[in-house]
Design a protein that fits this description.
This protein has 2 domains: 152 residues, Lyase, Ornithine Decarboxylase, Chain A, domain 1 (Beta Barrel), CATH 2.40.37; 246 residues, Alanine racemase (TIM Barrel), CATH 3.20.20.10. Helices cover 28% and strands 23% of the residues. It contains 12 helices and 20 strands. Strands 1, 11, 12, 13, 14, 17, 18, 19 and 20 form a 9-stranded mixed sheet that branches. An 8-stranded parallel β-barrel has the order 2-3-4-5-6-8-9-10, surrounded by 4 helices. The longest helix has 20 residues. The chain is globular, with a radius of gyration of 23 Å. The structure holds pyridoxal-5'-phosphate. Pyridoxal-5'-phosphate binds next to helix 10.
């Protein structure tokens, strides 16, 4: 049974033998992803309940390695990009056409004109963005991101809706959108709401209803809205005691709401979702090494050669990741669990992998199997917002490599950064 007092099981991404093999071949720390799990998650997302058609977009900010976006693209998953750089990266490195991308960004990219000319779909997230789009593209179709007035995230830092969130156009300012759309003869073809990462499914369902009401207001104004994008944010269970959102359960009432909307308004809306975490979080882990063990009067500290530069989430918002021990030698027998604080190797007291849940300021000792220096720790649930959201090069530790376990074996998909690469753009005067 799931327990907070027993060591967490090893990530399903790797076996103990693979941990030792990957560490020997590529060194530590190293990110590992499983193609099998990525594909399973893709298939579950593609089965999301819908009434009149579904588009799934991968929120590539969750993990921008282009092998992952390509793998999803092969299964028919399009892209959610959050900057002009992400769009160009996906085009250049993964050869994903701009027509397959919807851009939802806090910033207008410098190359917006070219991106839209090449087919990128633009989601205006503020009045300023919409006006700018109208000036460049009068008469064109556009999407708008609305802050529906409610949000929900796994932590306050990942809540992107409601009055404390700056994302999207506040729902009480729709008149601004109607005015700008009239001024530049824009048709709003898609309404978008994304209320947070790790959101409560009940809030997400309620916001789906509120979003349909927003679509109705656009229809009343003569806009030909054909799609409602309800964002991502579906909760995954990284720790064995956490409960994941069941996409089938979560989506069913929303499917019914779309049908009712069609009966009332005569418009059969397509559903769009854009998960990041759901697709990649549990398909990834980090293999690191135990480099030291220390004690204070209160705690036993296990120091690892990873930390904030590979996985910033615990220090940023007290995120919990499972940590399992794999002994250096397969012949080492099982050892008694101990309660330890797992720490990173950065000169920063906040570089802690076992903070209190939701409170990065506090420590929370964790049960892990007994270990010695040179053993490995595997940090699970690190496929999302880890490699792509790191405090890269703090203390001049190089960016870590990434490997993908495919049907062909264990393949390197990003090399470890060299010191020369780290300092290449520095000019010594
Ligand atoms: C606009 C938008 N869509 C989708 C996502 C993906 O969220 P998640 O990774 O929680 O599924 C995000 C994440 O921040 C986002 O900002």
């Amino acid at each position: 049974m799931a327990s907070k007092t027993k060591p967490e099981p090893l990530s399903p991404v790797v076996s103990p033998d693979e941990v030792r093999e990957i560490a020997n071949r590529f060194g530590t720390p190293v990110y590992v992803y499983s193609q099998r799990i990525l594909e399973q998650q893709a298939d579950s997302a593609l089965a999301f309940p819908n009434a009149y058609g579904l588009t799934v977009r991968y929120a590539m900010k969750a993990n921008p390695n282009m092998n992952i976006a390509r793998l999803f693209r092969k299964r028919g998953i399009l892209l959610d990009v959050s900057s002009g750089f992400e769009a160009e990266r996906a085009r250049m490195k993964a050869e994903i056409p701009y027509e397959d991308m919807l851009m939802t960004s806090q910033e207008i990219p410098e190359n917006l004109f070219g991106l839209v000319e090449f087919g990128l779909d633009y989601n205006a997230c503020s009045q300023h963005q919409l006006e700018n789009f109208g000036i460049f593209f009068p008469g064109k179709e556009v999407s708008v991101r609305i802050n529906p007035g409610a949000g929900s995230g796994g932590t306050n830092r990942t809540n992107t809706g409601g009055e404390s969130a700056s994302f999207g156009i506040w729902h009480e300012q729709l008149d601004d959108v109607f005015r700008l759309a009239r001024k530049y003869e824009l048709n709003v073809k898609r309404v978008h709401t994304h209320i947070g990462s790790g959101s409560d499914p009940a809030v997400w369902q309620r916001v789906a209803g509120m979003s349909l009401d927003i679509v109705a207001r656009f229809l009343e104004q003569g806009h030909d809205v054909r799609t409602l994008n309800l964002g991502g944010g579906y909760k995954v269970a990284r720790m064995s005691y956490e409960k994941a959102t069941d996409l089938q359960e979560c989506g069913k009432p929303v499917k019914e709401a779309f049908k009712e909307f069609a009966r009332d308004k005569g418009v059969k809306l397509g559903l769009e979702i854009e998960p990041g975490t759901f697709l990649v979080a549990n398909a990834g882990c980090i293999i690191a090494k135990v480099i030291d063990l220390k004690r204070t009067a209160k705690y036993k500290f296990l120091i690892t050669d990873t930390g904030m530069p590979e996985v910033t989430r615990p220090s940023l918002y007290g995120a919990q990741h499972p940590i399992a021990v794999v002994h250096r030698s397969p012949s080492d027998g099982e050892r008694e669990p101990e309660r330890v604080i797992v720490s990173g190797h950065c000169c920063e007291s906040g570089d802690i992998l076992t903070p209190a849940p939701g409170d990065s300021e506090k420590l929370k000792p964790r049960w892990v199997e007994g270990m010695s220096r040179g053993d490995f720790v595997v940090i699970g649930g690190t496929g999302a917002y880890c490699a792509g959201m790191s405090t890269i090069n703090y203390n001049s530790y190089p960016q870590s490599p990434e490997v993908l376990i495919t049907g062909r074996g264990i393949e390197l998909i990003r090399k470890r950064q060299t010191l020369e690469q780290m300092t290449r753009n520095e000019l010594v005067i």
